[in-house]
Amino acid sequence: MKIILLVAALWLPCSAYAAKNILVFGDSLSAGYGIAVEESWPNLLQQELKRTRLKFNITNASISGETALGGRQRITKVLQQHRPAIVILELGVNDGLRGFNTADIEANLNEIVIQAKHFGAKVLLVGMRLPPNYGEPYITQFQNIFPRLAEKHNLKLLPFLLESVAPEEFQADNLHPVTAAQPQIMRDVLKELKPLLR
To answer: pLDDT tens for residues 152-197?
Structure first.
């Protein structure tokens, strides 16, 4: 009986900690490209969760330049390492900017979602859009990936990460938001994330 209690005592803290991890799994938009990392929206989200006494820990496994294919190749190892309760999945736009086949992009994101759910994590899917110079058919095909996946897997969806970013709030590349835009991005993410924190 004492052994059972000891095992339970050792197991519970580890389990409780794991159940409170939020994994941000994205690209440069989540990695803080071009700005101080502490000013990036994932870091601001951690500060907000701490301020409101929501006991979740943010792990940011985002990599600048990451694609849905790259994410698919490394998701299992990241899930095994961090055992998140929630995954914020923000990938796919680099694939789109390179003109990859949208069916392949969707298949790779789909596999990431399946793996996350297999590990017992809830998923917040973050959608993206492409610049107009990519042509209407491809832009629409790409944009439809995210709501279709959300419906298929019954996921919470933030349709477009940069919806609230004003034109003057982008860096010189017109792709990455400046520091001033990060708090609003964080609030938009948090709005969709809150139901998953219950």
So the answer is: 999 999 999 999 999 999 999 999 999 999 999 999 999 999 999 9
50-80 as b/e: b if 16+ CB within 10 A: eeeeeebbbbbbbbeebbbbbbbeebeebbe
CB 64 within 8 A of CB 31: yes
What is the rounded average pLDDT of the residues 117-139?
A: 97
Structural contact between residues 39 and 31, judged by C-beta atoms closer than 8 angstroms: no
C-alpha 95/C-alpha 102 separation (Å) is 8
- The residues carrying an active-site annotation are 28, 173, 176
Longest dimension (CA), the chain: 68
pTM of the predicted model, to two decimals? 0.90
Options 3.50.50.60, 3.40.50.2300, 3.55.40.20, 3.40.50.1110; CATH of 23-197: 3.40.50.1110
8-state DSSP, 40: S
